[in-house]
Every structure is written in C-alpha cells, then in structure tokens.
Amino acid sequence: MFESLWRRFPVVLMARRNLTRARTRSALAIAAIVIGVVAIATLGIAGVAFKDAQFETLGSIGTDLQVSPGEDNDDGQLTDADLREMERATGDAELVPLNQRNAELVVGREDGSVTVYGVEDPDELYTVRDGTIPGNWRRGALVGATLADRYDLEPGNKLELDGETYRVAAVLEDEGQAAVASPNEAVILPQSAFDSEGYAQVVVRSDDAEAANESAVAIRDALNGREQRVSVFERGEVSDQIDEAFAQVNLFLVGLGAISLVVAGVSIANVMLMSAIERREEIGVLRAVGYERSDVLRIMLTEATLLGVVGAFLGVLVSLGLGLVINDALLGNPLAFTVEGLRYALLGFVFGVAASALGGLYPAWKASRQRPVDALRG
Predict the structure, then answer these.
(1) How far apart are CA 339 and CA 287, in angstroms?
(2) pTM score, two decimals?
(3) Residue 56 scores a pLDDT above 70
C-alpha cells in the first residue's frame, strides 16, 4: 500500500530512496529532531500536569468569596442584619456564616494549638470521610483529615478544647490547602459553642467564577457606601494569578526545549549539505537530462521535510509515552491528558517539521544553483 502511495508522489519516492542510501546519517538527523520534539512536548505536558496537580491540592478556589468585617466596622463582626443584606444582594448564592478562634487541644497525652470553626450547617462547606453529622447538630465535634491522622482520631473518640470535652462525630475529607475555612488542621463545632452573637466571616458560594464576581460587586454595592462595612476577598483572582504564573513558567520551559530544535535544524542543514556535496555528480546528471533547478530544489527540500516528519512523529510518540508516566505520578491517572497538554505535542510536531524544512533550505538552494557541467566534472 505504501509503495503505491510513494509512486503517486515521485518526488517523495526519490527523496525516500536518497535518505535510505545513507541510513546512519539519516537516523542521526531524525534522532536530533526526536530530541527537540520530546523536549518541547514533554516539558509542556509535564507543566500542564503539574499545574493541574497543584490546583487539585489547592482545591476549588475560584467560586468562593470570603466576606469579613471592613475597616470601618466598629463591632469587628458581621451581624444577622448584614447577612440578610448579603442574601438580598446575591440572590441564588449560598451563604455560610461562621466563627473562628484558636484553642488548646488535648487528645490523650498529646496536646497542641488548633483552629476551631463554628458552623451552623457544616454540610454546606465540608464532606464527611468517616462517621456522620447528626441531623440536629448541637453537640460533638468534626475533625479535619490532617488533624485526625496526626492524633489518630476516629468517630467516637474524645478530645478536649480549652478544658471542655467533645466526642468526635465525624472526620472530614481533605479539602485542599487553599479551601475556604480549610478544615484539614481544624476542629468544627456547632455555632452555639461560640458566645459571640455575630460572625467572623461569611462564605459566599457560587456556581462559577463569573457568578462569584457578580456576587462580590453586589455585596460591595449593597453594604459599602462611604464606609467600608465589609471586606470582600475574591479567591478567583488568586486562581487567575496562579494560572498566569504557571503559564509563564511553562512558556519558559518550552522555550528552553525549542533551543534543542534549533540545534536539530542545524544538524539537518549539515546532513543536507554533506548529501549535496556527495551527490554532486548525480545532481549534474539530473540537470543534464532535463531536470530544472526547481526540481532539484524540491527534491532536496522534500528530503529535509521527510526527515522532520519522521523525527517529529517519533518524538510525539515518545512524549505521549512520557506523558503517561508523568500523569500517573502527578495526577494518579496516566490517561489524564488535557487539550492544553496535547496542544504542546502538536506544537512540538509543527516545530520539528518546520525546523527540518528551514534547515534544508540553504543546502537545497545551493545544490539547485550548480551548473550541470561543473557538477559532472565533480
């Protein structure tokens, strides 16, 4: 099938035969392209996988707002009236008021300092790993995953907070380091365990980053006039900054990989120059039997491009193989390729073919400029 395909394109057939006559030199030129393509594609795929792994660790941070007392809030806390104004301003957004303090934790003979959150309905913020949250939650404590592992806590165990004893009702899932009111290193108590009548902050949960931004604007308009009663922290801005930082690092790494393709292009130029010198008499014969300069140019360029296509194709295959290993190590799923990651594989292929074609341009032009008589003299 391939032989019939080659015959449909005589220039490609001739270029392939010329390359197979110098197998070692062609193989070395292809290897240079493979290395360049692997450098670009693998660094790009690895950068995307690393970014996704970090966002998984950080948790979902783009759809949550944190509203806390502003600099003109003399009480230093948010009231029920503030909460109602926020509910009217945000419409469908979910509001979770909570309190926060530090406490001395004692578990058996071990002790330490711990963050304590007071939440009326923890189901709206957290996911349970072990145990259950009672329907009418008024007693008992919920423990974060990291804290539970450190003190070997399970549902039913007891712990002391500032001298008061609580029984662990449930252990929560790991919510990521940057989750709002991250429970990983904390203990969650009912809101009634706090003496305060107000709230330290209100978490506003939206369906997407755009809705979160609209909620932030609505809350500022509703509660902040001449005085800043509330401060709104948009976590989506942090997500965008992190994403931009990763993109810049990835671009730098891909740029380093592109340098190796420049070297590969120089290698292709060297191979084609050597080929043009060795085949000088052959080129003279072609010109003598009627081949035009453009024909010689096309044959030489086709040879260089063919080297690039084969090398880039093999480079993409190797990169995808390495991508399987990287995805498995960073994301736990070898097939977790994203469109952004595969785009770097395509970019590597295009750069590989382009570098080969450009590398073969000067040798092809030089070969086509030879006079038939001079070429036949050798």
Answers:
(1) 48
(2) 0.59
(3) no
